[in-house]
Amino acid sequence: MTTSTPKGSASTYRYPLSLFEGFGLEIEYMIVDRESLDVRPVADELFRRAAGGQSPSSFVPPDSDGLMGWTNELALHVLEFKTNRPTPTLEGMAQRFQEQVQAAEQLLEPLQCRLLPTGMHPWMNPDAETRLWPHECNEIYATYDRIFGCRGHGWGNLQSTHINLPFGDDEQFGRLHAAVRLVLPMLPALAASSPVVDGKWSPIADYRLEVYRTNSRRVPLMAGAVIPEPVFTRAEYERDILGRLYEALAPLDPEGILRHEWANARGCIARFDRGSIEIRVLDTQECPLADMAITALIVRLIEAMVQERWLTFEQQKAVHNEPLQRVFYDTTRYAERARISERALLASVGISRSLTWAGDVWMHLLDELVPDHPVWSPVLRQMLAAGTLSTRISRLIRRYPSRADLHAIYSELADCLRTGSLFGVD
Fold it and tell me: Residue 10 above 90 pLDDT?
């Protein structure tokens, strides 16, 4: 989102975009060896080739309109594609991201590398294989590493899709934050894609989120409970979330290198510097088409909640964190097979039953919100019928899969990314 200069008090800040006037999108992928699929820490070499000999931390394809860009992440084997500015529509964005995938794959081919999707590498040993980005902004990564040790699964082995949604002023921020808080617990039931870790199948469907919520345990206020606290103004947010976080970080980061809004690692974070809320809990899917279909459904849901379709703003604000956290932990573990019995959460999406499966919640929301879109609707119906990507992967492996078993499955996932096709659906 575009940064704006605040004017006046916190309640009178004005930002360039209002609710749902634009979308900031980011998708992360792993760079792996073309044959073995082991991670390859060559993101800087990829950037060097893309930029004609330099090694920048970001790159804008010269033959585009400037909307799409590439950027580095903490680990040298991770590449992020993103929108450089808000896009006013999600239409056509799957193709725009797919074009970036294809361009990167062409540059990676001489390096005997390719891109691999999903939320985690299935057999990477992050303690031994993680190499941090050593170029621009490396002092930030070095500080993270010094404080937290960034060579574990929650740091060196995770890939996600981020959605940035704008707000125009303090009132819009409150309404958007209230809605996103209620949506977060249900997202693993839609987007889990990380059921394999250390070469073993895990009973936790979204293992990326399992390690994500504990990776900053030295400073628990970094991620909090992942579901953010019920605060609905900038002043409250800066006092109760950012202020407490900065205070907790200060003894470990006296230079204030991490004293920025992005240090907040909750499942959604307020970016007042650019007037947006960033959703961070989505595992990367098998191809941009799947990521954008999921994004479209989530955006429609949040928009309906902001418009008070099922609960008023006051009712949304009154939902406590404890039931949201319980549902989030369940969907992290069981994805669409989690049973939801929290009445306030069910009521927030228009369900009057006292108990339902998380997958049925999303099918209900698809019928309510995206019943007949020519692209998103058929894709989402296929995905929901087949289960989350985590379920589709798990269905094909044994409890104790061999490396050959995993290699065959993840090779097919890499092919799905290259061709832009869904995995394991009829």
Answer: no
Neighbours of 402 (CB within 10 A): 11
Coil/strand/helix, residue 178: helix
Mean pLDDT to the nearest integer, 355-381? 97
Q: Is residue 82 part of a domain?
A: yes
DSSP per residue, 380-401? HHHHHHH--HHHHHHHTS-SS-
Token pair for 405: 């078993």
- Answer whether 0.90 is exceeded by the pTM: yes
Q: Does residue 193 fall inside a structural domain?
A: yes
Asked if residue 2 is part of any domain, the answer here is: no
Task: Flag whether pLDDT at 151 surpasses 80.
Answer: yes
Q: To 5 degrees, how large is the angle CA 184–CA 363–CA 118?
A: 55
Q: Which two tokens stand for residue 219?
A: 């400073």
- The DSSP code sequence of 113-177 is EEEE-SSS-SS--HHHH--B--STTHHHHHHHHHHH-S-SHHHHS--EEEEEEE-SSHHHHHHHH
Contacts of 8 (CB under 8 A, 6+ apart): none
Task: Please say if the pLDDT value at position 8 is more than 60.
Answer: no
Residue 3: what pLDDT? 35
CATH of the domain at 356: 3.30.590.20
For residue 165, the tally of other CB atoms under 10 A from its CB is 27
Closest residue by Cα to residue 407 from 153, 157, 334, 415: 415
Q: Under DSSP, is residue 264 helix (H, G, I), strand (E, B) or coil?
A: coil
Strand partners, 356: 340
Say if residue 301's pLDDT is above 60.
Answer: yes
Domain-located, residue 44: yes
Residue 6 in this model has a pLDDT that exceeds 50: no
What does the pLDDT read at residue 60? 81
Q: In total, how many domains does the chain have?
A: 1
The pLDDT assigned to 11 comes to 53
29: phi then psi, degrees, rounded to nearest 5: -135, 155
The answer to whether the CB of 46 falls within 8 A of the CB of 29 is no
Determine the average pLDDT of the residues in 259-270. 96
3-state secondary structure (DSSP) of residue 209: helix
Q: Which of helix, strand or coil describes residue 391?
A: helix
The answer to whether 24 touches 163, Cβ cutoff 8 Å, is yes
Q: How far apart are CA 406 and CA 398, in angstroms?
A: 10
Structural domain including 283 reads: 10-419
pLDDT at 55 over 70: no
| Residues in CB range of 415: below 8 A, 6 or more apart | 421
